[in-house]
Amino acid sequence: MIGYLLLGICYLFIMNTAFVALSVLPSIAGTAPAYVNDVLALATGHSATGDIGLLRNLIQVQNITFFAGGLVFGIALYRARVLARWASALLAVGGVVTIALSLMPDAFFRLLAFPNGIAMIGLGYSLWRIGRTATTAPSAGDHAPDLATAGAE
Question: What global pTM score does this model have?
């Protein structure tokens, strides 16, 4: 549950920073270009030279929750053996691989999102497949279990 909550919080933070990047930064780019450059530098793994307020903390919490949430949730799903284990392991590894972002150039940012995306697709398909097999109606050849042998007399 902790891993799920951390990953959920991370995606909420990603939504917030994307909203700021898409709607707020373009509108203030003409009046405060230094602030916009600092926010973009911090978001891409560089250091900001000026003060960007609480957005610095939000981006740091976003990075930590992405790493911890992916790792903990991936390990929990792997150990539970409910969904596809390969996708669970890929989610855990994808969270850890994001640490390499601080060491790589900007061109690799999008490539390192692929493991998490593929893991989410695999987990979603696995969940969908389990849900479809659990809700299928019994066929005409299936018989109801004998209540006396099932212990429900």
Answer: 0.69
Q: What's the pLDDT score for residue 150? A: 47
Structure tokens that stand for 1 in this block? 């549950």
The residue assigned the tokens 């560089």 is 46
Cα dihedral 94, 100, 102, 106, rounded to 10, equals: -80
Both tokens assigned to 70 = 């992916």
As given in the structure block, the two tokens for residue 122 are 């695999």
Residues 6+ apart with CB under 8 A from 5: 69
Helix, strand, or coil (residue 50): coil
CA torsion sign, 104 to 105 to 106 to 109? negative
Distances (CA, A) of 127 to 16, 124, 138: 28, 5, 20
Q: Show the CA angle centred on residue 57, arms to residues 93 and 64, nearest 5°.
A: 15
pLDDT of residue 46: 76
